[in-house]
Design a protein that fits this description.
This protein has about 425 residues and is of the alpha/beta class. The protein contains 16 helices and five strands. The chain folds into two domains: about 150 residues, Rossmann fold (3-Layer(aba) Sandwich), CATH 3.40.50; about 140 residues, Zinc Finger, Delta Prime, domain 3. A five-stranded parallel β-sheet has the order 2-3-4-1-5, sandwiched between helices.
Length: about 425
């Protein structure tokens, strides 16, 4: 097992990051586990080392050094494995030989490595005070690893103001600190940040690649893994959920069945309400138990007995937790609604495929008969218009339009 074992379908990105991680931070040399410069026979990095330590070839040594930089931006569509790749890269960077050892990987996966900094949010956006504190810690020297690694998940959720705080840290990087930012696209970042990072672009993995990963990692049978990967459209996280959670599969089937059953404006309004209910239930299932555990833990840390009244002087701390939980619930609901819209896009894509004589390309094969009837009832041009309306609804929700209104308007337009 290597740090890259669970990265699927990203061979070029892995090769680039593995090359960078293998550079010795002291002189740009590729180290080996034995401490002797040069590639280790049969290792992951065979053929990557160009110049051993003390090489008289300055161009080769320069080539080694240029493979590494202090700031990286990993971009790719949702579910492509941005965060997984970021942490695999972090584990390789912090391991003694740049290849990733089991102990370092275990600590990184648990987010407990002393030289790993993680900035993530379950809210709609980052708080500026959190970003400011995080940027300050980037100036600490690594305590046990070769590098101090700062990972920022969902960097696109930074406002311009918080991005400027991060920019200051990127402009004056410490010698042994490496930044790894994750975002769907480099266009989501400020131009001033884009100019200071090296971008690694991920592709959407093939369904077969995701299915193989899910079957191997989650222990499900091949048929279930293939179905989950196909319905998730190669979104690794969603494929995992569909493969391991029957209730998630049921909710998705309910959404597809509801969409294919719309015949009138009234039906569209009812369908929108039903989909909001599904998204709300999904978000509640995701956050409710966690919220209760966090509240119980907070009360315990404050010395408040279960069921006892919270003293007035402690209510502000509890209120801060509740505010964070509300923001997380808002994001979870938005993410759930967006996932419903992505599922609807897959349905209308399937309808277009049938209309164009490509039934073998259908994603939602379990609804083949219903999709065939829907394809016969309309034209490809009208189906494409509906797909455009779904895209508009996603943009509106992202722009803080009430999700129920955006979803209802989209479904009503689809049946007119």
């Amino acid at each position: 097992m290597t740090v890259w074992t669970e990265i699927t379908g990203q061979g070029e990105a892995v090769a680039e990051l593995a090359r960078a991680a293998s550079i010795d931070p002291r002189d740009g040399v590729v180290p080996t586990a034995s401490g002797v410069s040069g590639p280790e026979p049969g290792g992951l990095f065979d053929g990557l080392a160009e110049a051993p330590s003390g090489s008289g070839d300055p161009e080769a040594r320069s080539s080694n050094a240029s493979a590494m930089t202090h700031a990286w931006l990993i971009t790719g569509p949702p579910g492509s494995g941005r965060s997984n790749l970021a942490y695999a890269f972090a584990a390789a960077l912090m391991s003694p030989d740049g290849r990733g050892d089991e102990n370092t990987l275990r600590q990184v996966n648990a987010r407990t490595h002393p030289d790993l900094g993680v900035l993530a949010t379950e809210n709609v956006s980052f708080k500026i005070e959190d970003v400011r504190r995080f940027a300050t810690t980037s100036y600490y020297s690594p305590s046990v690893a070769r590098y101090r690694v700062m990972v920022v998940e969902d960097a696109d959720r930074m406002t311009e103001r918080t991005s400027n705080v991060l920019l200051k840290a990127l402009e004056e990087p410490p010698e042994r600190t490496v930044w790894i930012l994750c975002a769907p696209s480099d266009a989501d970042m400020l131009p001033t940040i884009r100019s200071r990072v090296r971008t690694v672009r991920l592709r959407i993995p093939d369904v077969s690649e995701v299915a193989e990963l899910i079957a191997r990692r989650d222990g499900v049978d091949a048929a279930t893994a293939e179905q989950a990967a196909r319905l998730a459209q190669s979104h690794i996280g969603m494929a995992h959920r569909l493969a391991t959670d029957p209730e998630a599969r049921r909710r998705r089937d309910d959404t597809v069945r509801t969409a294919l059953g719309i015949r009138s404006v009234g039906g569209a309004v009812l369908a929108a309400a039903r989909m909001i209910e599904v998204a709300t239930a999904d978000a509640k299932a995701f956050t409710e138990s966690r919220d209760a555990e966090e509240r119980e833990s907070a009360l315990r840390s404050l010395g408040v007995e279960p069921g006892a009244a919270v003293p007035a002087q402690l209510r502000a701390q509890l209120r801060s937790l509740e505010d964070d939980q509300k923001r997380r619930a808002t994001r979870s609901l938005r993410d759930g609604i967006d996932r419903i819209l992505v599922d609807l896009l897959s349905v209308f894509r399937d309808i277009v495929m049938v209309q164009l004589g490509r039934p073998e390309a259908v994603i939602n094969r379990e609804f083949g008969d219903e999709i065939g009837r829907a394809a016969a009832a309309t034209s490809p041009a009208r189906t494409l218009e509906t797909m455009d309306e779904i895209t508009v609804a996603r943009r509106r929700i992202e722009g803080n339009v009430a999700p129920a209104l955006a979803l209802e308007a989209m479904l009503v337009s689809a049946v007119r």
